[in-house]
Specification:
The chain is an alpha+beta fold and about 800 residues long. The protein is built from 31 helices and 21 strands.
Length: about 800
């Protein structure tokens, strides 16, 4: 382009129109520069607006646009110098000199002592070879040195008009960009960044999970931060709707989402009084609560108004009112008019009267301040009076009705942390989270019907507390109990400690804690023996036995410290002799016993772990909850089922989501029957427990087993019928030993078990354990005893007990 300009210039000179030609060429040369100035101003304006938008967090990604624009401005600056001064190759100028040139180009700010623009003009006009002079200048790397070097050739007179001209072009570009680009872009970006009003219906609000007992008594509600219970608008009475509209937004059915006059009043207060006010309609409040953050800023208020307009265009007034009444705060964690109705009055919203409805309507403005729970009912009543007066003014109610409602006494139900059967509830919560996840449990609005019988459970809780207090002289500080229905695996009562609210350790759940079971684990040992060919009449020598390995010597002893000679399997199990049990596990393998115990319900036992022979005496910890299920497996004739606290679990839409567990046979019915028959043999256990003990229930056949650990740190009793399993424990949470005078079957867990089992069986018919067809009963006339055998098994010849004792002595 410059070459073309020169050619035109030479041609025009030949026709002696030098003055005219010079003017035209000057204009043509300066025109590209002025255009670039305008574009620079245009982009500079956009640049400034983008920075502002980014600052307001309206469009975070704009930051990625800023750097390329800045680079483009620099490019335009270089092009501008090229067009002004073709004699100088600006690309050869580097370092600070180039930066100063470009700086002057943008801002018209003069470097101290020198005007760079004038310098370039001087170089171009005074020297035949300005490029050479410029090369000498650009090696100087400071403002002061540059100014000193060129000061003699600087024309100090400044053409003021040229600066005004440049400034006007630059400013016009900036204004143009702001008016036609920046403002429309800002509005567009702002509008598009607003939340979609349809999110109001797509939003899934946090709903509490409700836990009930088997008789539909509420045990507990689980929620995160808001207690939310939505209700359809048609179920909300007019007095509730009208009282809310009267006090919150009397023109609700007339406006389009905002009230301009109210907004102007609020703006005046904000500007003149430095007091940011509300002026929010019901629609705006809904938007603020569900779609926006709660900060009080002008930007948020603008967003609130714009979204409110969009909401009004998208939904009906009734839809908006329903959403509002279900999502407004009535104090604390209570959100929605249905939750508020239940919290304050203990009833559904459709059961409210005018007095109650007007009281609730006055709360959302300042729930804590006007709450009837804050100790100042005068504030609550004054707010209620305002609501009723507004209702009269708007014609919703007559004056007489309002006066009667105001005079009615406020009856607020007692406010308590509502939790019944707390140990059970916490166990249920853990199980729900394990299966469905914490997020669903906290926010998903599950309806959980549990297996617990609350009335029965509370009676069991009382027995546990009384027995622990009664046996405090034995250094017993805590107790626990569980009652199962073995036919279904359902938990009927669940007592994790003497008192959940006991300040020292009450909340600790013993039922899920790891404790040693003592001899109560022996039914697993003898079930393994029967699986491996032993019979109830098989004999084992109860004598001193020494087990040695490279690390230690182990000598098991009996609970009574005596040896009993040759004993049958029935006698050994019924009287809980230790040495025969250790002999069996030593012969059959501890790992095999662990595998069977796990199959029967001991979920914490690992098949791949190494266990010693002391496992048969309770050397490996278990959960009492699991141990109770082992006995339930025996009650079910060898069929394993998971213990369950659930009857039903429904999602927020009422759809059943509970999956029933499958059952599995882990032990034959004949072996289960034999173990049960031994454990229910009252006469067989007399040698160890005597006649007067707590292991029998008058009028009922009950299989029962006790367990006491070394140093008497744990004492257990577990027993069952075909319909119920009862397991009890006493001890100390810190493993402190109980008193040495504690006698298994006579004190400690046994009396507690007896009371709970008696309560459970009260009024129930007596049940017997039916003998499987594969089991036969053989009578030994010479010894006058009978014994059960599995058909086809090896039936030993009978040696009477008197003969065995005589043989043992010799």
């Amino acid at each position: 382009m410059i070459a073309a300009f020169d050619m035109v210039k030479r041609i025009m000179l030949k026709v002696n129109s030098r003055s005219l030609i010079s003017s035209i060429i000057k204009i043509l040369r300066i025109l590209p520069f002025l255009l670039i100035r305008f574009l620079s101003g245009l982009i500079n304006g956009l640049f400034s607006i983008l920075i502002l938008l980014n600052y307001l967090f309206l469009f975070d990604s704009l930051i990625y646009i800023l750097t390329p624009l800045k680079n483009f401005l620099l490019f335009l600056g270089e092009k501008s110098l090229d067009y002004q001064f073709p004699e100088i190759n600006i690309r050869n100028i580097t370092g600070k000199v180039k930066e100063y040139f470009l700086k002057i180009l943008y801002s018209n700010v003069t470097i101290p002592k020198i005007n760079v623009s004038k310098l370039i003009h001087t170089l171009a006009n005074k020297f035949k070879n300005p490029q050479k002079v410029l090369q000498e200048i650009i090696i100087i790397d400071s403002e002061e040195a540059l100014a000193t070097a060129v000061a003699p050739i600087v024309i100090k007179k400044i053409n003021f008009f040229s600066y005004i001209k440049t400034l006007l072009f630059f400013t016009s570009g900036t204004v143009f960009s702001i008016v036609f680009f920046a403002i429309p872009l800002s509005v567009f970006v702002f509008y598009e960044s607003l939340p979609d009003p349809y999110q109001l219906f797509q939003r899934i609000p946090n709903q509490p999970t409700k836990i009930y007992d088997r008789n539909d008594k509420l045990l507990y509600e689980i929620f995160v931060d808001k207690k939310y219970e939505p209700v359809a608008l048609e179920k909300i009475p007019n007095i509730v709707k009208n009282s809310t509209i009267a006090v919150e937004d009397s023109e609700f059915y007339l406006h389009n989402g905002i009230r301009p006059l109210s907004i102007l009043r609020a703006a005046k207060a904000t500007v003149l009084e430095d007091n940011l006010q509300g002026a929010s309609t019901i629609t705006q409040q809904l938007v603020k609560n569900l779609l926006l953050t709660p900060e009080r800023t002008i930007v948020r208020k603008i967003k609130e108004a714009m979204i409110a307009l969009k909401v009004e265009q998208s939904f009906s007034k009734d839809q908006i009112l329903e959403l509002y009444l279900n999502n407004i705060s009535y104090g604390g964690t209570t959100w929605g008019v249905q939750s508020a109705s239940k919290k304050y009055f203990g009833k559904n919203v459709w059961e409210l009267d005018l007095s109650e409805a007007s009281l609730l309507a006055g709360l959302p403005t300042a729930p804590t301040y006007y709450s009837p729970l804050n100790g100042d009912l005068e504030l609550t009543k004054s707010r209620q009076k305002l609501v009723l007066d507004r209702m009269v003014e708007l014609g919703y109610v007559a004056t007489e009705e309002a006066d009667a409602a105001y005079k009615k006494e406020i009856n607020i139900i007692p406010q308590v942390d509502y939790i019944r059967a707390p140990h059970f509830v916490m166990y249920v919560r853990d199980e729900l989270e394990r299966v469905y996840g914490k997020n669903i449990v906290d926010k998903g609005g599950l309806t959980v019907k549990t297996t617990l019988d609350l009335d029965f459970h509370e009676k069991v809780q009382q027995i546990v507390s009384e027995e622990v207090i009664k046996n405090a002289y034995l250094n017993i500080s805590n107790g626990a109990a569980i009652v199962l229905d073995p036919r279904t695996g359902e938990i009927l009562a669940y007592v994790g400690s003497r008192d959940y609210y006991f300040d020292k350790f009450g909340s600790f759940d013993v039922l899920t804690a790891y404790r040693q079971p003592g001899s109560s684990i022996k039914p697993v040992t003898y079930a393994l023996a029967l699986k491996n060919g032993y019979t109830a009449l098989s004999t084992i020598k109860d004598e001193k036995t020494i087990y040695k390995n490279q690390w230690e010597t182990y000598v098991p002893v009996n609970y009574d410290g005596r040896y009993h000679g040759t004993v049958t399997v029935r006698q050994a199990l019924a009287n809980s002799y230790n040495i025969p049990a250790v002999k069996l596990v030593s012969k059959l393998g501890a790992d095999n016993m662990v595998e069977l115990g796990r199959d029967m319900g001991l979920t914490t036992w690992q098949k791949d772990s190494s266990y010693g022979i002391s496992v048969t005496l309770g050397g490996k910890e278990v959960r009492l909850l699991d141990l109770a299920n082992v006995y339930a497996t025996l009650s079910r004739y060898g069929v394993y089922k998971n213990t369950t606290p659930f009857i039903s679990v429904k999602d927020s839409k009422g759809i059943e989501i509970l999956e029933k567990d499958k059952e599995k046979r882990v032990l034959s019915e004949e072996i289960s029957f034999l173990i049960t028959n031994i454990l229910s043999d009252y006469k067989a256990r007399i040698p160890a427990f005597g006649i007067n003990n707590f292991l029998s229930i008058t009028g009922h056949t009950v299989a029962v087993k006790t367990g006491t650990t070394d140093n008497k740190k744990d004492n257990l009793t577990l027993g069952y019928t075909p319909s119920y399993v009862v397991a009890t424990w006493v001890g100390n949470n810190d493993n402190t030993p109980m008193n040495k005078n504690l006698a298994s079957g006579l004190s400690g867990a046994a009396p507690m078990w007896n009371r709970i089992m008696s309560l459970t069986l009260q009024g129930k018919p007596s049940e017997v354990f039916m003998k499987p067809d594969i089991v036969t009963l053989i009578y030994y006339k010479r010894c006058n005893i009978s014994e059960y055998f599995i058909k086809g098994s090896s039936i030993p010849s009978m040696t009477c007990q008197s003969e065995r004792k005589k043989s043992s002595k010799t």
